[in-house]
Amino acid sequence: MVDSHAHHAGSAQHDKAAGRPVIVLTRITPDANHFEKLKSVVETWKRFLQPMSGYEGIDIACCTPDQIVWIESWNTKAELDAFNRDHLAFANFISDFFECAKSAPRRDVYRKLL
Q1: How far apart are CA 104 and CA 106, in angstroms?
Q2: Max CA separation in the chain (angstroms)
Q3: Residues with Cβ < 8 Å from 112, sequence gap 6 or more?
Q4: Are 77 and 20 in contact (CB under 8 A)?
Q5: Average of pLDDT values for 32-47?
């Protein structure tokens, strides 16, 4: 048996979180031979994000041959979720991230503190 109140409370909590601003911290470790190409892919990523609904901007936190790190700002978690669902998997250049890196990019989502 499912407690409808508990389900509603969880749904309300999800709705509240979905409406809050978030940041996405992305880390990627370049393959030794592809650092310059990976930097170019990150620039392409920045241009790709610009017209997306809810996207506020990107800050490069670190760009060295050992690691590239950036922070994306989004108006709401719901808009980030919509971007992930509708655009991320279909972006043509995503495979370039995999070709230029030692491993898959790590994307961690954090709620912005107000």
Answers
A1: 6
A2: 57
A3: 20, 21, 22, 23, 73
A4: yes
A5: 93
Task: Give the CA radius of gyration of the chain.
Answer: 17
Q: Is 25 left (phi over 0), alpha (psi -120 to 50) or beta?
A: beta
Q: In angstroms, rounded to a whole number, what is the distance separating the alpha carbons of residues 61 and 70?
A: 5
Starting at the edge strand that comes first in sequence, how are the strands of the sheet with 106-111 ordered?
55-64, 67-74, 22-28, 106-111
Give the DSSP letter string of 8-71: HHHHHHHHHHHTS-EEEEEEE-B-TT-HHHHHHHHHHHHHHHTTSTTEEEEEEEEEETTEEEEE
pTM for the whole structure: 0.80
Question: Using CA atoms, how far apart are residues 52 and 94, in angstroms rounded to an integer?
Answer: 16
Who wins on pLDDT, 41 or 7? 41
pLDDT at site 64: 96
Asked if the model's pLDDT at residue 79 lies above 90, the reply is yes
